[in-house]
From TrEMBL:
Gene name as annotated: LOC109013846
GO process annotations (BP): intracellular protein transport
Organism (species): Juglans regia (English walnut)
GO cellular component terms listed in the entry, alphabetical order: endocytic vesicle; endomembrane system; endosome
Protein name per UniProt: Ras-related protein RABF1-like
Classification via PROSITE patterns: RAB, RAS, RHO
Length: 191
């Protein structure tokens, strides 16, 4: 059905429980200012626009990607939209999430410490088979780097996470981040 198609939304069915067309909830976590909204806007709209904020709370952005085996994955991306502080929202936010992307800023050790806090929260409240990615963003600011790449690699490995450094500004590794997540999703059995 989708063979030969490189990208674009799957309009033929809702994708639920269809092993060829997955639909997954993805939640973003991380300190305010690490670039979560910019990563989403780069991925969904192909733009870097620090002034435009993803709308708060109720809605999410979605983007479909096609993999080489002709399956598609539709990400429904939930951004905390500045509500990082409201811990009480967390269980609702995590519910049904197949993917969690925990973001820090490579120039900010505080944001790396906060990322580790979010990973622990996910381990407590998230689904046990959630796919977790650790993302060191703002990789373009390498001259201001304060979190060594190896620290990210080591922490991710200890916690069974996929690790990548990105730049929403230059677009480095943004598509790769979502492609790698897609490859790691558990597949419903095909009939
Ligand atoms: P959020 O609070 O985590 O959603 O962070 P935002 O997406 O609002 O980004 C916070 C600020 O960081 C923005 O004003 C951007 O200018 C900046 N920013 C985001 N991503 C990058 C990046 O990859 N490189 C650089 N240099 N700046 C970034």
């Amino acid at each position: 059905r989708n063979s030969g198609r490189l990208s674009g939304p799957n309009l033929e069915n809702g994708g639920l429980a269809d092993p060829k067309n997955l639909r997954v909830k993805l939640v973003l976590l991380g300190d305010s200012g690490v670039g979560k909204s910019c990563i989403v806007l780069r991925f969904v709209r192909g733009q870097f626009d620090p002034t435009s904020k993803v709308t708060v709370g109720a809605s999410f952005l979605s983007q479909t990607i096609a993999l080489q085996d002709s399956t598609t994955v539709k990400f429904e991306i939930w951004d905390t939209a500045g509500q990082e502080r409201y811990a009480a929202l967390a269980p609702l936010y995590y519910r049904g999430a197949a993917v969690a992307v925990v973001v820090y800023d490579i120039t900010s050790p505080e944001s790396f410490a906060k990322a580790q806090y979010w990973v622990k929260e996910l381990q407590k409240h998230g689904s046990p088979d959630i796919v977790m990615a650790l993302v060191g963003n703002k990789a373009d600011l390498h001259e201001m780097r304060e979190v060594p790449v190896q620290d990210g690699i080591d922490y991710a490995e200890k916690n069974g996470m996929f690790f990548i450094e990105t730049s929403a500004k230059t677009a480095d590794n943004i598509n790769q981040l979502f492609e790698e997540i897609a490859k790691r999703l558990p597949r419903p059995p095909s009939s």
